[in-house]
């Protein structure tokens, strides 16, 4: 699974303290640099820099090159890019290179790192026209928000979907009730109708949130760490539904640390008709010789769609950039419809650009279309630092329920209690 969960070390906290008196003081370097100058471009932009520097993820530069070339031709600004591993190295390297003046103008990171990067003063708020925001799905823009402010533009999304073996299942069911009936009839011996890693909160969230639970209350773009909805009535109903599948239909082997490899093995051996998994699993399934079908997750018994967790990769402006306006212009350009489409064609990364959902390049790709549709119902993983305290307690609660060692309400109450204690201990409020 390629989900990234930000774990904030003591080094990060130290860097945050240092950043508090560094980047914030440089929050408006472009204005300082051009103070007293009258040169302004036709659209009101400050003087053009000679060069902008971008950090791209490894093995993704091929998708950036055509966008850079077009940007250079249009604006006459040279753009250099360097491939730096996205999940951890970009964040860690920016802490060093930014203050040293050798860092980039633009970086790309998973959206769940935004809160910590903002807290440390490593990326800056950006300003773009509403017309730009309107080109993206609402949920993908929500993922780029922190404390009600915009800190980037979305590049690509991924979220779990329904994947089935076309040899064993004619078509994807529209509801979980249909899937349950299919599984009751199909599951026997070492054959299973449907499998999901619902003892893992990343996947279980789709059920829990679809039933009415939530991690942190979202108040107009600001997540309230003190309002946790993981043991409310909806969350309990969601975990009760999860418990039903484990009790009646799931094998014990897909619980715990080795659950993912066990589930993959059963599906790739043709022993499971369908699974809940993400786009990162497609190629391995095809390599195993499985003719896969892909669809959005079936609707829950309450008639609501599964609200799966969504991961969003975005582009962000470094707080150390001396050309923030032009860096913002660059990320607007490389995420526009034309360049987002080229990125998909070259990397298969799925853009959250609304106009592309029905474009043949995505509409005719079954997996991409399923992810694009499911992403409209998905919830961005919370990007505040306190989210780091949620994964462990929720995993414990879900595994206790899956193993029939605790009732849902009891397990969730204990998890929320632990989450709140850890937040107060590790993230003291100001």
Number of DSSP strand runs: 13
- Round the Cα radius of gyration to an integer and report it: 23 Å
Low-confidence stretches: 1-38
Distance between the termini: 35 Å
Q: Shape from CA axes?
A: globular
Number of separate helices:
18
Query: What is the average per-residue confidence, as pLDDT, rounded to a whole number?
Result: 90
Tell me about the biggest sheet?
4 strands, mixed
The secondary structure category is alpha+beta
Beta fraction of the residues? 15-25%
Helix fraction, binned, reads: 40-55%
Itemize the secondary structure elements and their pairings.
Elements: H1 10-19, H2 29-33, E1 51-56, H3 61-75, E2 78-83, H4 89-100, E3 106-110, H5 114-119, H6 130-133, H7 138-142, E4 145-146, E5 149-150, E6 153-158, E7 161-165, H8 176-186, H9 201-210, E8 214-219, E9 222-229, H10 233-248, H11 259-268, E10 274-277, H12 282-287, E11 292-295, E12 309-317, H13 324-334, H14 337-347, H15 360-363, H16 366-375, E13 379-380, H17 391-402, H18 408-426
Parallel strand pairs: 1-2, 12-13
Antiparallel strand pairs: 3-12, 4-5, 6-12, 7-10, 7-11, 8-9
Helix pairs in contact: 3-14, 9-10, 17-18
Summarize this structure as a short list of keywords or feature phrases.
alpha+beta, three-stranded antiparallel β-sheet, 430 residues, four-stranded mixed β-sheet, disordered N terminus
Question: Gist?
Answer:
With 430 residues, this protein is an alpha+beta fold. Helices cover 41% and strands 15% of the residues. Strands 3, 6, 12 and 13 form a 4-stranded mixed β-sheet that branches. A 3-stranded antiparallel β-sheet has the order 10-7-11. A two-stranded parallel ribbon has the order 1-2.
């Amino acid at each position: 699974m390629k989900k990234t969960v930000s774990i904030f070390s003591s080094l990060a906290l130290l860097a945050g303290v240092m950043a508090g008196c560094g980047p914030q003081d440089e929050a408006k370097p472009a204005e300082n640099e051009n103070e007293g100058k009258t040169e302004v471009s036709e659209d009101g932009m400050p003087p053009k820099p000679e060069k902008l520097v971008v950090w791209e993820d490894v093995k993704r530069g091929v998708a950036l090159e055509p966008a850079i070339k077009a940007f250079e031709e249009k604006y006459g600004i040279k753009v250099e890019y360097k491939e730096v591993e996205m999940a951890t190295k970009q964040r860690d390297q920016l802490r060093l290179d930014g203050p040293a003046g050798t860092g980039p103008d633009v970086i790309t990171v998973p959206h769940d790192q935004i809160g910590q990067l903002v807290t440390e003063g490593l990326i800056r708020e950006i300003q773009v026209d509403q017309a730009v925001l309107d080109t993206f799905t609402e949920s993908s823009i929500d993922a780029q928000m922190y404390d009600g402010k915009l800190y980037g533009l979305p590049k690509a999304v991924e979220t779990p979907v329904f994947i089935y073996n076309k040899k064993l299942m004619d078509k994807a069911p529209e509801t979980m009730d249909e899937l349950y009936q299919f599984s009751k009839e199909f599951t026997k011996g070492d054959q299973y109708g449907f499998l999901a890693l619902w003892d893992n909160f990343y996947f279980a969230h789709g059920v829990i949130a679809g039933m009415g639970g939530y991690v942190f209350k979202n108040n107009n773009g600001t997540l309230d760490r003190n309002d946790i909805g993981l043991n409310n009535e909806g969350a309990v109903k969601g975990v009760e539904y999860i418990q039903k599948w484990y009790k009646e239909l799931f094998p014990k082997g897909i619980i715990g640390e080795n659950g993912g490899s066990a589930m993959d093995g059963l599906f790739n051996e043709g022993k499971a008709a369908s699974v809940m998994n993400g786009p990162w699993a497609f190629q391995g399934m095809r390599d195993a010789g499985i003719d896969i079908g892909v669809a959005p997750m079936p609707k829950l018994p309450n008639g609501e769609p599964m609200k799966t967790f969504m991961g969003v990769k975005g582009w962000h402006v470094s707080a150390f950039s001396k050309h923030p306006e032009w860096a913002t212009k660059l990320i607007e350009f490389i995420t526009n419809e034309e360049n987002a489409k080229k990125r998909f064609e070259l990397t298969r990364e799925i853009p959250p650009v609304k106009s592309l959902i029905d474009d043949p390049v995505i509409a005719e790709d079954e997996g991409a279309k399923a992810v694009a549709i499911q992403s409209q119902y998905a919830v961005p993983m919370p990007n505040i630092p306190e989210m780091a305290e949620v994964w462990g307690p929720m995993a414990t609660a879900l595994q206790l329920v899956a193993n029939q060692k605790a009732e849902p309400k009891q397990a969730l109450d204990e998890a929320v209690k632990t989450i709140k204690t850890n937040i107060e201990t590790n993230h003291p409020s100001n």
